[in-house]
Amino acid sequence: MEKGNENKGNILYVLNTLKKYSDDEHILSCNDIKELIKKDYDVNIDSRTIRRNINLLIEKFGYDISTYNDNRKGYYYIKNIDIDFTLGEIIMIINQIKLANDINEETSNLLVNKLEKQINIFDREKLKSNIAKMKEQKTKNWELVNSLEIVSQAIEEKKKIQFIHNGKNIIYSPQYIVYRKFKVLTPFNYIVIGTNNTLNNNIGILLSSMKDIKILDEECEFLDEEKNK
């Protein structure tokens, strides 16, 4: 990295280090910050530059950072409850992600990893004993995600779809998708509302029960207002 770019990044190195490694129980000295920046970013910053950037973060950017003058020990980042996630909020969000059947395991892990980076390393350790275990029936592939994409495309293009439902081959005209929450069967699921060739009224089918979905060339047939009364 060029020297000029390093100097521009100094203030971000300091801020990210304080957010990641400090709180009121883990107060950092200038030397601690210097070593952590070297470890994480392979950049050398002197103590005077660190102190100057901390003052800029407080005075110019409004960050709440406790300093040596406040605690007589060093520096630590104080969370802004209007912006920063608390540990409890992160636990709540992660649990919802892990228990959601319509989020496959790969995507779930990706989202959880992103959320973990929003809190410091000490709170990350506390997560391990507070987050829900992955459900055995959690989607392990892209089937449900792909189904949602296929049906959404069919609705946009006003095309019929063909799929297997309860062992039967169904031709269906999807109109829209409803997002529902079930308290007993599953935390989250989707219902596709539309019509088929054998019924003269709208019916809803669980997206998760629709297998081998294909978009047909035929245009959708919707009920007119007279038939739907």
> H/E order of the elements?
HHHEHEHHHHEEEEE
Number of strands: 7
Radius of gyration over all CA atoms, rounded: 27 Å
Which class of secondary structure composition applies to the elements? alpha+beta
Task: Work out the helix count.
Answer: 8
Low-confidence stretches: 1-6, 182-187, 225-229
Measured by DSSP, the beta-strand proportion falls in 15-25%
**How would you write the strand order of the largest sheet?**
6-5-4-3-7
Anisotropy-based shape: elongated
> N- to C-terminal separation?
70 Å
Helix content: 40-55%
Please indicate the count of domains. 3
What is the CATH top level name of the largest domain? Answer: Mainly Beta
Largest sheet: 5 strands, antiparallel
CATH architecture of the largest domain: Roll
- The pLDDT mean sits at 83
What's the CATH topology label of the largest domain? SH3 type barrels
Description of the molecule:
The chain has 3 domains: 3-77, Arc Repressor Mutant, subunit A (Orthogonal Bundle); 87-127, no CATH class; 143-219, SH3 type barrels (Roll), CATH 2.30.30. It contains 8 helices and 7 strands; from the N terminus they run H-H-H-E-H-E-H-H-H-H-E-E-E-E-E. It has helices at residues 3-21, 30-41, 47-59, 68-71, 87-99, 105-116, 121-127, 143-157, and strands at residues 65-66, 76-77, 159-165, 168-180, 189-196, 203-206, 211-219. Strand 3 (159-165) and strand 4 form a beta hairpin. The N and C termini lie far apart (70 Å).
